Amino acid sequence: MSKLTTEVKKSNIQTDQKRKLPSNILVFSHLRWDFVFQRPQHLLTRFSKIFNVYFLEEPVFENTSKAFIHQSIREENLYVLVPHIPEGLSEKEVLLVQEKLVSQFLNEQSQKDFAFWYYTPMALEYTRSLNSDLVIYDCMDELSNFKFAPLNIKKLEQELFRKAHVVFTGGYSLYEAKQHQHQNIHAFPSSIDKQHFEKARTYKKAPKDQVDITKPRIGFFGVIDERFDIDLVAEMAVKKPQWQFILIGPVVKIDPASLPKRENLFYLGSKTYLELPEYLSGWDIALIPFLLNESTQFISPTKTPEYLAAGIPVVSTPIKDVVRPYGDKKLVHIATNSNEFISAIENELEADKEKWLVKVDEFLMQNSWDLTCSRMLQHIEKAVKINKVININISTL
User: How far apart are CA 149 and CA 170, in angstroms?
Assistant: First the structure.
């Protein structure tokens, strides 16, 4: 991960001298830290240069007589907390145990000033009674549209909007859908660690499980779930048996046995964030083959700028936050079916990438996770300042 920009460091100095932000952030997440390195990991590793960050995952249930939180360190000032809860408890009992564990954790800290950072409104069910002077909601997805979403998640999100001092969204389309629900909401779409993915342009050695796969290689990395258009990829594999399709990532919410099997389809499993540029270096084309359904209505795929930084042409279905800005700026091909995908891929396999790469690099210069963190921090500082003024005014009544 790159170092924080000078802009962020200056904001840190302002924080210490003027704003008096909380020293700690407690993050409530529906995602596992070690699952896939994505938006929360990008943001929070950078914020850990400014705050102590505690990332609280959803509980694991096991044969234990006593509930506890297991704490592990990932980087300096960055900790992952995993609640371990006895099996067999009712839903209500689980929530009570979670509330007790979080309360105990907060009481045990020598530093009491905690900001609460939510990735899921469901965490309100066990944190509603806990107070913080700074509540942040990073609304990275429309979770209510996902498969197996809890029935009460929309109601809880409305409660979280009332509780939050500042809200961020994971893309422009999600911002447009939510902007009237909070007075201090800001769009922060997927960003890029450009330096990391640019390594793919110069790697020469192929990974062991990819080295024997012939070219051209058409690749995808990410979670393979209900958003992924399996049929689209299968159709392309049938129509273009001379092309090799490489799929990297965990299979979630769908039966792995249902995935199509062909000699030119390769499922390489999960890879670490550090390994990705090595695999990308051997690809000719990258795919974003997402279905157009409720679960993809507001997504802003982080992989879009990552593919581009690696110097690989991209073909995507018409996901709103890919069409705008990447499709509109002719940085990514937009296709709606297997024939259009094949046509776009064929054109790119023959195209000269030099001018396109210049446009890509010019666009990505304006986009980085460091800048995103810096701009988020400015909004957080303003929210703290406004909240302090409100509290002072109330106290004088």
Answer: 18
